[in-house]
Task: structure prediction
Amino acid sequence: MPLTTAPPTAPATGVSTAILNLLLPHRRTTDPAPATAEAFPHQLRRIARFVRDGAPVVFTLPGFPCKSPNPAKVLGHLPDQGERLSLGFLNTLCTEIGRIYPPGARLIICSDGHVFGDLIRVPDEHIDAYADELRAVMDRWDLSRLSVFDLRDVLGDLPHDARRAHVHERYAPTLEALRAEIRAGDPARALYRGITRFLFEDTADHTGTRSALQRDCRRRAYGVIQRSRAWGALIAEHHLHAVRLSIHPQPAGAAKFGIRLLDAPDAWTTPWHSAALRRADGTWTLLPRSQAARRGRLVRADGRPSHFTQS
Result:
């Protein structure tokens, strides 16, 4: 049954605010000041549609693409403790919503590695293995409120390059429009700079000059953003009324709500660009592998490197 589009009633608004208040402590942002639920009217309206119909609230979260190809940042090409903790957190967040709103919530991980795998220079077989392991973690840990959605769910057995071309041609903004938006300033410029930095840091085998690598990363960053926008448009088409979360920092009032998965010293850090470190006090943080290795000892799980721990 399609969700209704009438203005939210007062009870729906109250429940929607309570749900959003559960998300606010985990908001990923670079805004210096905290914000209240009223600063997010777009999200409140979307949540209210589900509440009004007594349906589970659906969130979509593009991300969890694949591990960084730089071995100084990550422990391997498969999900590890960073992803396990992050998925557990997201499932718990949905469970907490169910305590104040009985229909509960579910969250769709929109794994986007194949969308720009050629630009970030990660083999497609590694991307498949990463997404398959995400699903296995959800099964093993009974994270029943989570699911994974990727290009295989949309375009089936088409070759990877054909899938990427289809998504780009149908949904991506033009390069000219994107360049103009980035020139106009934040937040597009901040995203462009952040992705350029990630591409630069993720390149472990460059044999040319630093300036040549920087030029190449700037060029590829435009492509990554184009494809990411295309993926977002495809997600919106397939999950029309879902509340859109983001792993990137988002300002108050934006159409996307930035969500922080784990503690990290940088607002842009994600589990797939880092390794998890268990501090001596039992809390967790995300750091590049090389830094985490200097602070703790390596722990293995299921025969693979998993995380680091301090004594």
Observations:
- The first strand starts at residue 57 and ends at 63.
- Confidence is low (pLDDT under 50) at residues 1-7.
